[in-house]
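Quick question, first post here. What does this chain look like in 3D?
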Amino acid sequence: MNPIRPNRRSVILTGLALAIAPALPVRAGALAMQVAKDPDCGCCADWVAILQEAGFAVSVEEMDPAALQDRKAAAGIPEAMRSCHTGLIEGYAVEGHVPVRDILRLLDERPEAVGLAVPGMPFGSPGMGPEDQREAYDVFLIRADGSSEVFASYAAA
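> Answer (accepted):
Ran it through. Tokens below.
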């Protein structure tokens, strides 16, 4: 039986693949998020679909508005940062229509924080209409003391 002997090209390509692998972004496929939302909110379902298309494993819990507000408060979301749904992922809260790339950046950087928020429901944010018609909005990083700072900005289209 002849042993398989790698040629020079396969050795070089394997080496290159191994060298760049650590630089690749976090893959959403293994990430599980629990989302709490109002049962009558369609934009929340649209945002969940975007997360699922990106490979997140999303479980949804529908709850009445009072219970949803209690969930937001328990997660540390200040009233001024609240939106229509709240996600929980790997110890962080994700409030409102936060883009996938910002969630992945949060999980990659792992800052000491409550999580991210897109307050209100800006048109053109994920799940809120076409991105090519979006209004400008910011994604905020919420700190444990309730303060916030801009994490990412999206210009109007």
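Strands lie at 32-37, 57-62, 85-89, 92-96, 115-118, 137-142, 148-154.
The radius of gyration is 19 Å.
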